[in-house]
Amino acid sequence: MIVLCVISLLLLTFYLREGDTGPIHAVRGGVMTVTSPVRMLGSAVAAPFGALGNIAQNATASSETLSELKKRNEELTAQVAELSEAQETAERLEKLVGLKSTYSLESTAARIIGSTGDAWTDSVIIDKGSASGFEVGMPVCSAGGVIGQIIEVSANTSTVRLITDDQSGVSAMIQGSRAQGVLQGQADGTLRLEYVVSDAEVATGDIVITSGIGGTFPKGLPLGTVASIDRAPNAVYYTIVVRAASSAESNEEVLVITSVSEDQIASDEEVDSANGVPQGGSDAQGDAGQDAGGQDGSSGTDE
Fold this sequence. Notes:
This protein is of the alpha+beta class. It has a domain of 183 residues: Beta Barrel (Thrombin, subunit H). It is built from three helices and twelve strands. The strands form two sheets. A six-stranded antiparallel β-barrel has the order 1-2-5-4-3-12. Strands 6-7-8-11-10-9 form a six-stranded antiparallel barrel. The chain is elongated. This is Cell shape-determining protein MreC. Involved in formation and maintenance of cell shape.
């Protein structure tokens, strides 16, 4: 080892003292020339591995960044959905308040929480009952208009028979001509305005509203619009199909009308003009009795 060190020192000394044309420089140049291809090959082989290491490092960073961005996107999406739902709820409630104000309704808000699951009736359940002052027979409205009437009450829930149920009937009239009739649900879920005399002025698109006869539904509430009109030869009444103004399926919040004032029911003149029309039928209370304005015992809910 000592000998090698001495030889190395001597060679270094001679290398530094001799010129560029000296023998040691010549030997070094030859060795560099011979080994140059080997060194270049080594660099070429090592370069991809260095690049691969950089790619792997960048890929790891990109993967972490992507994961963080994805998480943030999910959070923002959830916030947008929450805000959108809150806005839609606020808009629905605002429309209910508008309906209440427009028609000066004594009413209490409730929420639809499900259907009765009864295949024979078209009805829903709301989340308030007798504890909130609700009673059988009270009308139920959405922001678009009348959707039904309470037929059963417990302490904290109520069952609402929808106007599309074939046991439902609401005293109604054409808004423009004031032609009187009874809006009745059908077994197929449609609505018909019955007992409108064939000489009355009725046109497709006419608005159908509550007439206020019977005192249960305040006068003037929207029920729907005339979808089609037909009259058989020599028929006394039109066959009028009505498109409902609103439906339970498209609403979550409703108003239960708890009281009807004197100025919200039909006048004596309006009642007299409708004397030829069977108003109502069986009471919304089902077996509880007949409608105060009913005359023929036909099915219906308006009182």
